[in-house]
Structures are given as structure tokens and as C-alpha cells.
From TrEMBL:
Its EC number is 3.2.2.27. The gene is ung. Excises uracil residues from the DNA which can arise as a result of misincorporation of dUMP residues by DNA polymerase or due to deamination of cytosine. It comes from the Bacteria. Residues 52-212 form the Uracil-DNA glycosylase-like domain. NCBIfam families: PRK05254.1-1, PRK05254.1-2, PRK05254.1-4, PRK05254.1-5, ung. It is an enzyme of class 3 (hydrolase). This is Uracil-DNA glycosylase. PANTHER family: URACIL-DNA GLYCOSYLASE. Pfam families: UDG (PF03167). GO terms for biological process: base-excision repair, AP site formation via deaminated base removal. One of its GO terms (molecular function) is uracil DNA N-glycosylase activity. The keyword Translocase does not apply.
Length: 227
């Protein structure tokens, strides 16, 4: 997978990961699955889309997801985001509800979050691939170690970053983040199963921008453009 294009900013801190035995095993697993005719999402050129759209030195916010969407045409390498023209998933619908309640921004008519990524919002999933229609099918295959290294690289940046951790899984994964240097925002997950248990009303977007402003960093324009 080292042959998949990766932004130069990420190559140095992640270089050792690509030669590690776990990454070689992961590559073999993915190759074998594809050879068996299984459909893997997102496509190979988009495995590292979150990193390529948000170079390391530009990261101001991390929104940590768990797995790519496993439906046809949904996943494209950014957590919580779907391609233009794809129905907005339920968790993202709730994210939009909270965005409106928090900042008065009306829900976008699409679920394409690239506008956030290009401003320094790292939309990172813990696991970067999935088999079609098989949720969590690639958990425990090695991606978690790789994305831990991504989070460590962000944690080590000289400037402060906002980590938005929705749900117990994200909070456990990023438990080592330096909360004295960075802002760590924790709440329930935006899934319909849990959004009413502390996600709705948590105001992560205004908290993020207040923190960035306080550190002399540009706030995020959370309003998505029309497509």
C-alpha cells in the first residue's frame, strides 16, 4: 500500500508503518479478498483520502470515525462523509441537526464533507476499508495500528488541535492524546441509537471555533457549499 499516493507531509511520520509486518499482512489480506471477488470500499486510490486532503501541518481538527460506510457508492475515504448524490446517512443527519442548533447553519442537501477536510479537519476512520454489506468486516486486520500512528503524529504537532471524539470507541482510541495541549471534545455518538444521550446539545462546532480563535488559529467554516 506504500505504492498508493500519500501526501508528502504524512510520509515521514508514517514511513515505518508501511514496512512493518502488520501492514504487510494487511496488504496481503486485502489482495486476497479482492482476488476472491469481494468488493472492498472505498476504492484503493481513496484509502488515504483523509490524509491527502488534509496534510499533517494543516490539521486543526480531528473527527474520528470507526469504519467506512459499507453501502454501494457511499465510502470515499472521509469519516461520516458520502459522495455527492448519495443519501445523507442517519448519523450525518444528526450532525447537521447539531450544527444548526449550535451555529444556525441549515442542513446541507448533500453529505459530501470535502469542504471541511480542505480546511484542516482530518476526517479519519479507525479502519480504512470494509467489505460491501459487511459492517466492521475489516476490524482487527491492522488498520487500527496504522491510524493510531496517524493520531500520534497529530498529537505531536507543535500547534494545538481539536479532537472531536464521538462515542466510546473514538474516546478509547484517542485516550493518549495530550489534553493539556489540545482540546478534546467528548460526547455520545451521533448515531440515532445514541444521539439523544448527549450528542445533541453538545455544541462541538462552536467549542472548536472558540478554541481555535483563542489560540490565534483560523476557525473552521462549517457551512458546506451547495453542489
Amino acid at each position: 500500500m506504500a505504492d498508493i499516493a500519500l501526501d508528502e507531509q504524512w510520509k515521514s511520520p508514517l514511513d515505518a508503518e508501511f514496512s512493518a509486518p502488520y501492514m504487510q499482512a494487511l496488504k496481503t489480506f486485502l489482495t486476497t479478498e479482492k482476488a476472491a471477488g469481494k468488493r472492498i470500499f472505498p476504492k484503493g486510490s481513496e484509502y488515504f483520502a483523509a490524509l491527502n486532503l488534509t496534510p499533517l501541518d494543516q490539521v486543526r481538527v480531528v473527527i474520528l470515525g470507526q469504519d467506512p460506510y459499507h453501502g454501494e457508492g457511499q465510502a470515499h475515504g472521509l469519516s461520516f462523509s458520502v459522495r455527492p448524490g448519495v443519501k445523507t446517512p442517519p448519523s450525518l443527519v444528526n450532525i447537521y441537526k447539531e450544527l444548526q442548533a449550535d451555529l444556525g447553519i441549515p442542513p446541507a442537501r448533500h453529505g459530501f464533507l470535502e469542504h471541511w477536510a480542505k480546511q484542516g479537519v482530518l476526517l479519519l476512520n479507525a479502519v480504512l476499508t470494509v467489505e460491501m454489506a459487511q459492517a466492521a468486516s475489516h476490524q482487527g486486520k491492522g488498520w487500527e495500528k496504522f491510524t493510531d500512528a496517524v493520531i500520534r503524529a497529530v498529537n505531536d504537532l507543535p500547534h494545538p488541535v481539536v479532537f472531536i471524539l464521538w462515542g466510546a470507541y473514538a474516546q478509547k482510541k484517542a485516550a493518549f492524546v495530550n489534553a493539556e495541549k489540545h482540546l478534546v471534545i467528548k460526547s455520545a455518538h451521533p448515531s440515532p441509537l445514541s444521539a439523544h444521550n448527549g450528542f445533541l446539545g453538545s455544541k462541538p462546532f462552536s467549542k472548536t471555533n472558540d478554541f481555535l480563535n483563542s489560540k490565534g488559529l483560523n476557525p473552521i467554516d462549517w457551512q458546506l457549499p451547495n453542489l
